[in-house]
Write a structure and sequence with these properties.
The chain is mainly beta. The longest helix is centred in the N-terminal third of the chain and has 17 residues. It has a 19-stranded antiparallel β-sheet that branches.
Length: 414
C-alpha cells in the first residue's frame, strides 16, 4: 500500500506539472484525531482481562481534489492509523510502515441531469443498517427538482484469473430514489447481492450460489419542533449449499424509529431498533437472522453498540454496530449549558430477540455521558464515560463484572 501511495502521489505531481496552472484548482483538506481511552471488563468478568485495553491512537486523513470545472473533479482521500508505541508506525522512529490506506479515489463528473462517480468511494444506505462504508464501484445519479435517483454497482469481491474465476465474483446492485416533499423525505431502496459461488468471500452457512435481496425505505419528517424518522427493511432470497443439497431460504427483517424535539433549553431524543435473529431451537437451515454480508455500520450505545468515537470492540454477546438478533431502546437528552460546551446523556436497554445457547437474552442497561468542548476554532475535545449494567446474555458465571469505558478524543478538520 505504501508503494501504491507513493506511485499515486508521483502520478499526481506529474499531471500537475504537465498541465497549465489555470487548468484546474487544487483543493486540500483533512481530519485528525488522537484518542486516549480505557475499556475494561468487556468480557463481562474481571478474571481473564482478555478484552481489557488502555491505549492512545492517532488517525490522520488527508484529502486532495483536483477540480477541473464545476462539472468535473478528481477526489482522493488517504488515511494513516497509528497506535502509540506499536511496531508499525507508533514506535521509535515512527516510520509508518503498513499504515497508509487509500480510502477514496474517484472521478466525479456531471452530464446534466446525471452525475457519475467512478472508483473507490463511500456509500450510506438505510442509515447504515444496510451499508455505511467505502468500496469500489460506480454511482450514477439522476437529479431533477425534488427527485434524486441513484443507481449503484458495488464490487464486493473479485474472483480473479482462471477457469470459472468469475463465478466467485460478488456484486451488489442498488436502486435508491430520494423523494423530497414539503416536510417529508421518502427514500425507498432495493438491493441485490449476488454471486455464483460466494464461498471464496464470505460463506453464508457454507453457501455457493447466493441471491439475497433487501427491500426497504427510510422516512424523515419534520413535525413542528420534532423530527421523526423510520427505517424498515425486509431481507429475502436463497443460498445453495456447497456440493449441492436443498437451497437455504433467507427471510429476515429490521425496523427502527427515532425522534428528537426541543424541550426548553434541552433537546430530548429516543430510538428503537429491532432486528430478527436465529431461533437456536429451530432445526431448519433457513436463515432468519437479519444478515448483511459486509459494509453494515450503525452506531448506537458506546459499549454495546460500536459507538463511533471509540469503536474498537463491543461488550460480549452484543452485535455491536452490525444490528442482528437485537432489540434496543434508547432515551436521552442533550443541552448546551454554556458557549462552546455540549453535554449529552443517553440511557440504553438492549436484549437479544432470540435466546443465546445458554438460554439468556438480557444484554443489560447502559448509561453514556458525552461532553464536547470547542477548545479553539475547528478543534474539539470530547470526554466520554460509559457504564454497562450487564445482563446474563453479556456474561453469566463467576467473577462477573460490569464493562465500562473512559476516554477522550482531541480532533479537528480542515
Amino acid at each position: 500500500m505504501r508503494k501504491l501511495f507513493v506511485a499515486l502521489l508521483a502520478l499526481g505531481l506529474v499531471v500537475a506539472l504537465a498541465m497549465p496552472a489555470s487548468a484546474f484548482d487544487s483543493i486540500f483538506g483533512g481530519y485528525w484525531r488522537t484518542r486516549m481511552y480505557t475499556e475494561q471488563n468487556y468480557t463481562g468478568e474481571d478474571q481473564t482481562e482478555a478484552a481489557d485495553v488502555t491505549q492512545v491512537d492517532t488517525r490522520t486523513r488527508l484529502y486532495y481534489t483536483a477540480k477541473f470545472s464545476d462539472n468535473f473533479k478528481f477526489v482522493n482521500k488517504f488515511e494513516f492509523d497509528t497506535v502509540w508505541g506499536d511496531t508499525v508506525g507508533g514506535d521509535i522512529g515512527t516510520d509508518g510502515k503498513g499504515t497508509i490506506e487509500l480510502k477514496h479515489s474517484y472521478a466525479d463528473f456531471t452530464l446534466a441531469p446525471v452525475n457519475v462517480k467512478v472508483g473507490l468511494q463511500a456509500w450510506v444506505l438505510g442509515r447504515g443498517f444496510l451499508f455505511d462504508d467505502d468500496g469500489a464501484g460506480l454511482t450514477i445519479t439522476y437529479a431533477k427538482d425534488n427527485l434524486v435517483v441513484p443507481f449503484v454497482w458495488l464490487k464486493a469481491y473479485e474472483g480473479g484469473y482462471g477457469k470459472d474465476a468469475n463465478d466467485k465474483d460478488v456484486d451488489i446492485y442498488v436502486l435508491a430514489p430520494v423523494i423530497k416533499m414539503d416536510k417529508i423525505t421518502l427514500s425507498p431502496y432495493v438491493v441485490w447481492e449476488t454471486s455464483e459461488d460466494i464461498s471464496g468471500w464470505l460463506p453464508l452457512l457454507g453457501a455457493e450460489k447466493t441471491n439475497v435481496y433487501y427491500l426497504g425505505a427510510d422516512v424523515d419528517a419534520a413535525l413542528g419542533k420534532a423530527n421523526v424518522w423510520f427505517t424498515g427493511i425486509y431481507e429475502f432470497g436463497s443460498a445453495d449449499p456447497v456440493g449441492g443439497g436443498d437451497s437455504v431460504d433467507v427471510s429476515a427483517w429490521l425496523v427502527a424509529l427515532g425522534a428528537d424535539a426541543a424541550v426548553g433549553p434541552a433537546s430530548v431524543h429516543g430510538q428503537f431498533i429491532y432486528a430478527t435473529g436465529e431461533d437456536l431451537k429451530d432445526t431448519s437451515t433457513d436463515i432468519t437472522a437479519f444478515t448483511v454480508m459486509a459494509g453494515q455500520s450503525y452506531d448506537w450505545a458506546a459499549i454495546m453498540g460500536g459507538n463511533g468515537i471509540f469503536d474498537n470492540q463491543n461488550s460480549a454477546g452484543s452485535c455491536g454496530a452490525t444490528p442482528s438478533n437485537l432489540m434496543a431502546l434508547n432515551v436521552g437528552a442533550s443541552m448546551k449549558p454554556m458557549d462552546k460546551l455540549d453535554v449529552a446523556l443517553d440511557l440504553w436497554y438492549a436484549t437479544l430477540v432470540e435466546d443465546n445457547a445458554a438460554g439468556d437474552s438480557d444484554l443489560g442497561t447502559e448509561v453514556d455521558l458525552t461532553i464536547t468542548y470547542n477548545l479553539i476554532e475547528n478543534m474539539n475535545l470530547d470526554v466520554v464515560g460509559a457504564y454497562l449494567f450487564a445482563g446474563d446474555a453479556t456474561y453469566k458465571g463467576a467473577n462477573d463484572a460490569d464493562p465500562y469505558l473512559l476516554g477522550t478524543r482531541l480532533s479537528f478538520s480542515f
